[in-house]
Structures are given as C-alpha cells and as structure tokens.
Known about the structure:
Layout: E1 6-8, E2 40-42, E3 46-47, E4 53-60, E5 65-71, E6 81-84, E7 86-91, E8 97-102, H1 106-114, E9 122-127, E10 133-136, E11 139-145, E12 149-154, E13 173-179, E14 185-196, E15 203-207, E16 216-221, E17 226-232, E18 237-242, E19 249-255, E20 264-271, E21 278-282, E22 294-297, E23 303-304, E24 310-317, H2 329-333, H3 353-358, H4 360-365, E25 368-373, E26 379-381, E27 390-392, E28 398-403, H5 408-411, E29 418-424, E30 430-437, E31 439-443, E32 449-454, E33 457-462, E34 468-470, E35 497-500, E36 507-510, E37 515-518, E38 525-527, E39 536-540, E40 556-562, E41 567-573, E42 575-576, E43 579-580, E44 585-590, E45 594-599, E46 606-610
Antiparallel strand pairs: 1-46, 2-4, 3-4, 4-5, 5-6, 7-8, 8-9, 9-10, 11-12, 12-13, 13-14, 14-15, 15-16, 16-17, 18-19, 19-20, 20-21, 22-24, 23-24, 24-25, 25-26, 27-28, 28-29, 29-30, 31-32, 32-33, 33-34, 35-36, 36-37, 37-38, 39-40, 40-41, 41-44, 42-43, 45-46
Amino acid sequence: MRPPFVTAALLALTSPCPLVAQQTSTSRPLVTPKDYGRWERLVNPVLSANGEWVAVPINRVDRTAELRVYGLRAGADTTPFVAAEGRDPVFTEDSRWLAYRIGQSEAERTRLEKEKKPVRDGAGVRRLDTGATTTFTGIRRFAFGGSRYLALLEYGAERKGDPGDPDSAVQSADLIVRELVTGTEMRFGNVTDFAWQDSALFLAMTIETPDRAGNGIYLYTPRTGQLTVLDGSRERYRGLAWRKDGDDLAVLRSRDVNGWEQPTHEVLVWRGLAKTPRASRFDPRGAPGFPEGMRIAEHRVLSWSDDGQRVFFGIQEWFTKPDTTAKDSTRAQGGGDEPADVEVWHSSDQRIIPMQRVRKEQDRQATYLATGNLASGRFVRIGTDLQENVTLLEGQRHATETDGRSYRFENMFDTPRRDVWLVDLASGDRRKAVEGVWYFHGASPGGRYLLYFHDDRFHTYDITTGARADLTGKLAAIFVNQDADWPVRRQRRSWGVGGWLDKDAAVLLYDRHDVWAVKPDGTGGVRLTQGAADSVRHRVVRLDPEAKSFDPAKPLYLEFYGEWAKRFGYGRLSLKGAAPQGAVRRLVFEERRISQLAKAKRAEVFTYVID
C-alpha cells in the first residue's frame, strides 16, 4: 500500500516517497478485511520554514496514528523519523527543532476510560540535525518561544467545577520552560495559562493557587531568569493578550459583586514592558457609556488595535442572583407530582428547540464585541445582536455588523438576508452601508471597501466616500453560479472571491472557469486566465496564511479542475498590476486527485498531495 504523498519543487518533481514497500504486480496479495484497518489517510503536511523538512501526520482506519518526518535536502536520508501517535507538528522559525503532540491509541484510550483514569496526551521535541528526541508525559499544551525555548503546560488535578462558576473548573498545573540547546528547565507551579511575547523576550503567566492567596500575573524573562509580579490579588486572571510585534500586555481580572451572578472583569494593561513599563486599567464601573446590567465576560479573547490605543473584549447581560429562600408555589399546588416535560416553540423563534438545546453552551458564552480607549477610558459597544457577525476592519477605525432582524421570517426558509452596518469605533456612530443582501463578502484588506453580491452582480461600498459601484455588470462574464439552483432561493450565490491585490488595487473574482482582476471602483476588470477554452476551472491558492492580500509583483498560484476529464493540478501566473504577463504555466495536471498545495515560508519548496 502506498500513501498519497509527493513532495515537489513544482519545477522539477522529485520521486514519490513510498511509506510502505510495494509488491510487484505478479505477487501482489489480495486485500482482505483484516487489512482494512491499515488503510492510511494523510493529514495536512507541515513544511519547515527553510523547506528542508516536512512532517506528515498519518491516520489509519483502525484509529491508530503516527507522525513521519522526512528530510528533503539533496542526499538526505529518506528513512523517516516516526513518532507513534504523533500529531500537531510545529517547527521553530530557524527550522532546527520540531515539537509535536503524542496522543493515545484507541485501545489505550478505551482501557483508561474503563479503569476510570484520565486520558492525557504527551509531547515530544526533536533536534532535527542530530535526531536527539525528548518526550514528556501529561502535557496539556505547548508552544515555542522563538527558536530558543519551549513552554509545556502539564495537566492539573481533575475538578468538576461549580456550574454557577465557570472559572472553578480551570486547572492550574506546572509549567515547564525548556531551553532547547542546553536542555535546562525551569518549572513554575499553579499556572492556568501562558503566552509568549512575539520575540520570546517575555513569557506571561496567570497563577491561581488553591486558596487564591497567591493569584496573580507573572512575567518571566528567560534570558535573565528574572520573574516579575505584575499584579496580585485574590481574584482570577484570564485571557492573556500580547500586542502583535510589541511589548504591551493585556489581561482580564475578575471582580465579584454581591447580588450578581458570575463576576465582571477589569482589563489590566501594561505597555512598554521592555523599557519603562506603564500600567493602566479599563474599569467598566467608571467607563463613560458602559451599559447598566452588563459585564465584561471571560468568553471572548482579548485583542489589541494596531496602534495600541484600544483593547477589544466581549460584554454580555449580567443577571442578579435568584432568591433561593422563596418557595416553589407550583410544586405545592401540584400535590407533590413531578412537573411534566413540556417544550414550547413559538413561530417567531428563529431556531427550533433541538438546535437551541445543542447550542445552549455556545449561547451561554456568546458576547457582544466592545472596545475601550485606554487613554480616555471611553467605551464603545460594537455588537448589538448575539446571532450576528461583527468584524473589525483594517486599522481598527471601523467595524461591520450584519443585521438580519428585518428579515427573520423569510430567513427561516431561504439563505439568510441581512443589512450591513458600519460602526465608527471612535464615536460609536452607526450607519447602514448595505441593505438586504444575501451574500456579504466582507471588507477589503485595506479597510476601504465593502464587497457584496446582489442582483447577480458584485458591488462595493466605499467607506470613505459612501459611493457604490457595480463591478461586474459590464464585464463579458457570468459571475452568478447557475448550478446553484434550489427552490425558494431568491438570489443564487456567486462563483466566489479569490482575494484582493495589495493596497485594494483589485479584487479577484471567479466566473465558472476563470479568475478576473476587477477594480473596486467599478472602472473595469481583466480576465487573468483562459480556462473556459478547455473547461478547466481556475481558482486562486493562498499559500501564505498570514498575508491579507496578494503582491502583484509575485507569482499567483492557481489550482485546476478539469470538468470533463476530472483532472486536477496547479499552475502559476505572473502579474503586473492587474494585467497578466503571458499564459498560465501548468506545473502539474493529472487525472488524479491533487490537493493541499503548501509552500515553505522562506524557500521555493512546495508540497502537494495526490490521492
């Protein structure tokens, strides 16, 4: 049996990497039912940044798994390193180290559950040039600190928790900080969470002791060994958030209030930790505009604005504690009988009762997005409906919120229709930018345009001027998906959006077979591919998950699908602005399923999977 894995530079294909020896055609045995469990499935290969290593997770039908690590350099040993039950591989930025999770086999998991013992994962770390490998047992989470350190958080004692106190079940445990080269380890106790600063200058930790006397947030500097207490109290600390590429830190600190269920939170902030730290906080009690009967909740992850002037958090309704001394009059009148189970559904309910039951926990944790200005203390509520989507735009000066309240009845039978509101994060002002659309495709990466599909055409709304533009009405192509023809649906979906070019210069739109680069102000567009000629569908591949847009100075990679021959493959197209420079170059195109194209971060090395 040969698994579906090929690695390639896309210009010169290398030989396939057989993971199991093949039989000759004359001696190949029959596959019997006892062999079914050995059937393998490849799961998301991961390349090192320099392209010299690839980690390949493998899952089998019998629910066993392993991680295989191959060297890709010329002359490298083709024998892979194999980690039984290995998964979730992560390379360091310098490509010298690999860390991975070690799970439990199905048989071992069943045995532990039968014996009522906890099922706990482990972790491994491997030095790639020497092959030296260290494994750890009982590891709940791990993360590299740059290319020099590895932090591993163990499992804590099992606690059931109090249903009325969501923090009571949080496990505190030992945190191991390992220097990779020397193997030196530091251990910290009673840690509930940790977060590395981007350059690994600092490691922030939240601490919670059994009696809560030692609770606090601690800052560890691994290069010097210094440990600093940033804040300490009997409260709980949650949601560590570093500002991207900075040394500013935010965290939630709980605050119990008599008579109210669940705690509210303050946002504690430290800026300039590498030089002269400045501490501040956002307290909802004194924040102008903070609504009564609401609390800052722990369920949404804290985040920063790019300029470091705002933090974003979630708020939700805050309820008073019920009167536990009051008697249940209905039970007294019922003569001691247990109340009957009755489910009442109203026609105005958007979700049927089984869905409400399934989403009960998600609904309990749902929050409204809000922001606080750290300098002025001004509060701005962004979200107004827990069932709608709120998105921050680039630069965090505006946000969008969808609103389907005007269409709730028709949305029960059709693709949800919504308005789109634009929120000014400085003033809190709201204006309706888009009305009554079924397909809203969000904002451009530069934050200037809102893109939506309506009346079988793509449109934009310019945030700066308020102008609207029809992007595709005059183009010689059909952008509506004519195959998506279901009853009731009033607006069929489009063929899709491939992304944007840098500086919002153009948006990449799909017709049935081709990719178009269309100017967002409606002044025209150009077809980049010629897939319609031989019925080959072309779609854009996003190789850099961190990039918000495509650089027109770099090649654009495309995936192919031949509709009639069922052929799959990948190709490359050079761009200059929004005009194609020559035809698409087909790099691989075969009558086999080809998928999962990936690229090394700092090398022209690619992987793809063949089924």
